[in-house]
Design goal:
This protein is mainly alpha-helical. The chain has one domain (about 30-190, about 210-240). The protein has helices at about 10, 70-80, 90-100, 105, 145-155, 175-180, 225, 245-250, and strands at about 35, 120-125, 135, 185. It has a two-stranded parallel sheet with strand order 1-4. The chain has a two-stranded antiparallel sheet with strand order 2-3. The mean pLDDT is about 85.
């Protein structure tokens, strides 16, 4: 019987490429606490500002630059927030605090109309205690959370209510700091005391989980009356510089005298 030899790859369909969805992404920071300097300024003592409809300038034009997050850390934060809760306004609020270094007072001023097209920008309002109202660009990983929060308001009420509240009136939701701790996100903590030397032959004591310290930092405030308020850092380090001058001087290895500890600042 006559026959011909043929290459199998020419007759059979090509093998399907391996599906990347079957392999979970590599997470070097999984199950670890992540210290985010942007959360150092989350708590505030001032009251929420009035409802504002201004067209705020970009944060960079106001000489304000939030802390930069390393790419690996940013990917892990995004992974956790996208899976932490079924309430997008809760995850969106914490995400906004992460990429803007905003306080709870500023976050409470955000309404649905303050979100730009496709959630590309978000505007935070301020009565002038800090740098004033500012518009921040939204990173790609946070946009689905903010768009979902806005969609909830569009479906339920169709009005421009506070973006980071639930239009359905859910109760029992955690406070923002408690939600951050459930995601293992927190501000940089005070240095731990040196461990005591144990006697030879004694069993080591189990390591106890320390309670998260949430400072009240006023380094972003600009009014002289507010600057007189005492810092309540509770041993936590100050956030990184946020202006062009202080960032440039940090790169050169020193900071101007008007940054950081109040007792080191010149009198006004």
């Amino acid at each position: 019987m006559r026959h011909h030899l043929a290459d199998a790859t020419a007759l059979l369909p090509a093998a399907a490429a391996p599906c990347t969805a079957d392999h979970p992404p590599r997470r070097p920071l999984a199950h670890r606490w992540i210290a985010l300097p942007a959360l150092t300024t989350l708590l505030a003592f001032d009251e929420p500002a009035r409802l504002c409809h201004c067209r705020a300038p970009l944060a960079a034009d106001c000489d304000f630059f939030p802390p930069v997050i390393p790419q690996t850390t940013e990917a892990e934060v995004a992974w956790r927030l996208h899976r932490a809760t079924a309430h997008p306004h809760v995850a969106g609020e914490l995400a906004t605090a992460v990429f803007t270094a905003a306080s709870t007072t500023q976050l409470s001023t955000v309404h649905v109309h303050d979100l730009g097209p496709e959630a590309s920008t978000i505007t935070l309002h301020d009565d002038g205690l800090r740098q004033g109202c500012m518009t921040h660009p939204v990173p790609l990983w946070a946009r689905p959370l903010l768009m979902a929060a806005r969609r909830c308001w569009d479906i339920v009420t169709g009005t421009s209510g506070p973006l980071f509240t639930d239009p359905l009136g859910s109760t029992g939701l955690p406070h923002l700091t408690a939600f951050a701790e459930s995601c293992k996100l927190r501000p940089p903590q005070p240095p731990r005391p040196a461990p005591r030397k144990r006697k030879t032959g004694t069993a080591p004591r189990p390591r106890q989980q320390q309670e998260t310290v949430w400072p009240v930092c006023t380094v972003h405030y600009g009014l002289a009356s507010v600057m007189l308020e005492p810092d309540q850092m509770r041993g936590c380090p100050y956030p990184p510089p946020h202006t062009r001058k202080t960032i440039a001087r940090r790169k050169n290895g020193w900071l101007p005298p008007d940054y950081g500890l109040r007792e080191l600042q010149p009198p006004r």
